[in-house]
Amino acid sequence: MSAEATNPVSAAETAATDPRVRRRARARLDLRRIGRAALLGATAGPAPRDRLPDAISHVAEAHRAHHPEADLTVLRRAYVLAESSHRGQFRKSGEPYITHPLAVTLILAELGAETTTLTASLLHDTVEDTEVTLDQVRREFGDEVAYLVDGVTKVEKIDYGAAAEPETFRKMLVATGDDVRVMSIKLADRLHNMRTLGVMRPEKQARIAKVTRDVLIPLAERLGVQALKTELEDLVFAILHPEEYEATRALIADATGSGSPDALAAVAERVGAVLREADIAAEVLVRPRHFVSVHRVRLKRGELRGCDFGRLLVLVAEDADCYAVLGELHTCFTPLISEFKDFIAAPKFNLYQSLHTAIAAPDGAVAEVLIRTHRMHKVAEAGVVALGSPLGTPPDTADPAETAEDGERTDPTRPGWLARLLDWQESAPDPDTFWSSLRADLAEDHEITVFRADGGTLGLPAGSSCVDAAYAQHGEAAHACLGARLNGRLAPLGTVLSDGDTVQLLLSQDTGSGPSPEWLDHARTPAARIAITAWLQAHPEAAAPPAAAPRPPLSVLADRSSGAELHADLDGAPAAPVRPAGCCTPVPPDAITGFRVRGGAVTAHRTGCPAVDVMRRLGRAAVPVRWGDAAHCRVTLVAESFGRPGLLADLTEVIATAGAEVVSATVEPPSEQRVRHTYTLQLADAAGLPALMRAMREVPGVYDVDRTHRL
């Protein structure tokens, strides 16, 4: 069965929801008629210079609808070169080959692509399949067209063998990084090939459909080209899941041919009346769901009702009108708050903007509603194609807010996910690694934004961890990452990030340190996984499994000499020994409070110690205590750190340099790469304690040093 015959939605029908596009909508290109026109043009000689050949008139009409002032001369020249170079070549379906570049160009013209893109699409197969050279294209049409044609030209299979397909996609992605129009042409090329895939063997249909599903459809989604993405999804659905496709087609046929009143159209009429009464100029359109969308809704909701086969689209002039419409709908209908999403204030990573809501009509029917401006709708349908050339300011999209400080326009066609993809592909020289990593990366269809401690941002796939953030920010320098502060608090590197988190990555000064094998369990991005794997392969000793039994705490004991002098005022009672409390280890000049304990002794606590509140709740009377004249003291410090070789030696060296004596030291076993060191120190002068704590905090790997606070 031909994939083209199963296609439920044409490109013209997809674009028809926009009223401006609807007025110029036309039937799909008749490939056989265009093929005959091409052959007749070949025998009758070139067309007169004052008009385009009949075979390209469809493209000219669609192009002028979006760009009335476009110069069509270059399109004529490109068509003449493409037709003459492809003359005598035929597709497997039997049509002259020129029908393929014509159809690809028409798809892009209806999406609003500018002239340079259409010129390159007419020529996109000439260098690959004919005697035309890239230098010839450059001489006749300029560097931009030559770059686009080269970007979509496949690498030679004779040179790359089985790696030809991955390397072709790598080449296209690198070219897309400089000019996103390369991928626009490739998507339109794949759409026309999928429409005519029925002439291929079933196994080849399935192979091409799987690559389309895993790579091209996610790319179309990320570039915001919904008009191409939805039709590609339906074509892939028909090939890979024919039974589900037929069941969905039957559901749609029953819903549209039953003769029952159209529930969604009735809701649209009521919405239109409400907006007219509120004096809001808006167009209310019924937007049918495509096949895959209906299938997904059926899986989610079970039995479908009339309103489930489509959504309402409300088009207005200004952003403020979108919120005015939303207010009226939520006032006059019962809204489903759980369905509300504001993609205008927070656009999706693929440039998509719209308000989403759902309302319940009086009869109980629930209708989903999309609210957007005409410009938002154009970008939602055509994505980066609607933004024009990244090398200049596209028409109708110039915005002062999109201008960089140096006066150049910020390129909205170079999104963060594309920059990340281009970065990690350089670290994947093996085609198999690149191909599998590309599919895994594109499978992550949601993106989050996290803030760096320096005020910058990182765009990461949803589900990314601190490990991914480290490699996204620092590259291979992230091998020395010790840990992270997440929203101001210490967090393990495996912590999954959420949208809006603030993350500070803590790096070791030891350049020889490297990642742990456990990091691979937390890495989601290809960049992180490739970098970690490469380091572990270069350092096999680092992948050795840890000891099975946990290490006991390491303790070091020294002479327990007395601390600073303490005295208690006992109102004439016999003198009692006074000692500092071990829970808070007060030192001069801390404010202190004393309490009697068993044996008649007195313990002195820092006034803010939690034990003081506990004693008072138990009814224990406080005893006035004070410091004596001696300046020496004993204090217990806790150093929180990330485990690394030599850390204990570095800390003890700092302590010795400060002139402190170690009374005891305990190192707890590492937990999630964190280590706690507890030191009881004897200081000759309590005034040196703040400087000692600062020096300990500056040891690489130590993120906090504090005095004990335990009950």
Q: Which parts are unreliable, with pLDDT below 50 for 5 consecutive residues or more? A: 1-52, 391-413, 546-562
> Radius of gyration in whole Å, from Cα?
35 Å
What is the terminal-to-terminal distance? 77 Å
Q: What structural class do the secondary elements suggest?
A: alpha+beta
The beta-strand count equals 22
Q: Summarize the main sheet.
A: 6 strands, mixed
Q: Average the pLDDT over all residues and give the rounded result.
A: 78
Beta-strand percent range: 15-25%
Number of helices: 29
Which overall shape is indicated by the principal axes computed on the Cα atoms?
elongated
Estimate the helix proportion, in percent: 40-55%
Short description, anyone?
This protein is an alpha+beta fold and 711 residues long.
Structure notes:
- The protein has 711 residues and is of the alpha+beta class.
- 43% of the residues lie in helices and 16% in strands.
- The chain is built from 29 helices and 22 strands.
- Strands 1, 2, 3, 4, 5 and 6 form a 6-stranded mixed sheet that branches.
- A hairpin with a 5-residue loop joins β15 and β16.
- α15 packs across α23, α16 packs across α17 and α22 packs parallel to α26.
- The longest helix is centred in the first third of the chain and has 21 residues.
Mind sketching the topology for me?
Blueprint: H1 3-6, H2 11-15, H3 19-22, H4 31-44, H5 57-66, H6 73-86, H7 99-111, H8 115-122, H9 126-129, H10 134-141, H11 143-152, H12 157-160, H13 164-178, H14 181-195, H15 202-222, H16 226-240, H17 242-257, H18 263-277, E1 283-288, H19 291-301, E2 310-316, H20 319-332, E3 334-335, E4 341-342, E5 355-360, E6 366-373, H21 374-382, H22 416-425, H23 431-443, E7 447-452, E8 457-461, H24 466-474, E9 481-486, E10 489-491, E11 502-507, H25 519-522, H26 526-538, E12 554-557, E13 566-568, E14 578-580, E15 592-596, E16 602-606, H27 610-617, E17 622-623, E18 625-627, E19 633-642, H28 647-657, E20 661-667, E21 674-683, H29 689-697, E22 702-707
Parallel strand pairs: 2-6, 7-11, 14-16
Antiparallel strand pairs: 1-2, 3-5, 4-5, 5-6, 7-8, 9-10, 9-11, 12-20, 13-18, 15-16, 15-17, 19-21, 19-22, 20-21
